[in-house]
Amino acid sequence: MGKAKQIRLDFISKHDADIIIKKYHYSGKVKNNSKINIGVFYNGFCEGALEFGPSNDKRKMIILVKNTKWNEFIELNRFALSDNLPRNSESRCISIAIRMIKKHYPFVRWIISFADACQCGDGTIYRAAGFDLIQVRKNLDLVTKDGVVLHTLAIKTGKGKHDFYNKSKGGSGAKFKPLRGYQIKYIKFLDKSYEKYLTVPILPYSTIKDMGAKMYKGIAAATTA
Fold first, then answer.
1. Where are the alpha helices (DSSP H) in 33-176?
2. pTM score above 0.90
3. Strand pairing partners for 96?
4. Would you state the pLDDT for residue 143?
5. pLDDT of the residue at 177
6. In the prediction, which pLDDT does 27 show?
7. How distant is the alpha carbon of residue 91 from its chain centre?
8. Chain-centre distance of CA 83, in angstroms?
9. Chunked in runs of 10, what are the mean pLDDT values of the chain (225 residues)?
10. Where are the domains of the chain?
């Protein structure tokens, strides 16, 4: 682990976490509803942050694990670190953050997170932290317009996704371009007794490579030197 052991994590304000995320996250965007905000400190400076909170659509997410109450799961909404941090910092930060949540929020049974293999990577850090892979799917949610990446949920079209890109049906998304790639879903059980309630199969990590979804820093593995 080396120098990564010198990293310290502590709870910080939403305001401060947003500043760090905007500075270091590849999207430059924050989630307005994050509730648990953790700063990553190294050599006396805040060099990263993790933001946890409710999923965009909790009703769709909660059914992943039966018998889960409304407040018993959270999503890792944002995670970003500066380049000043040493190797292995990502997995160490996630591991420490999970321990903090288990201690201070004992009612949280599981954490859901997504790897954006359209723009960033396929979730190496989640696999290193022991998250289970539960879905690899082609992207249906991200679009671009004039070089800006947007989420379809943030675009008020009045149309379902089926008609979003269909000009003949008047889909407002006709002026947007789908962002090609994959979205990868991971889950981490803080309460192991809830594993038996998972309603979807756990996939082998090799599924990512088999589906052509392997990516690092926005570059597909096939084109990586």
1. 58-62, 89-104, 124-128
2. no
3. none
4. 59
5. 65
6. 78
7. 14
8. 19
9. 84 97 88 94 96 93 97 96 92 95 98 80 90 87 57 48 47 58 90 98 94 68 46
10. 2-139+182-223, 140-179
Q: Which two tokens stand for residue 111?
A: 């954490």
CATH architecture of the domain with residue range 2-139+182-223: 3-Layer(aba) Sandwich (3.40)
HEC states along 6-48?
Answer: HCEEEECCHHHHHHHHHHHCCCCCCCCCCCEEEEEEECCEEEE
Joined together, the tokens standing for residue 86 give: 């040493």
What would the two tokens of residue 135 be?
């879905």
53: enclosing H helix or E strand: strand 45-53
Q: CA gyration radius for the chain?
A: 18
In contact, 40 and 50? CB cutoff 8 Å: yes
Q: Residue 212: phi, psi to the nearest 5?
A: 75, 25
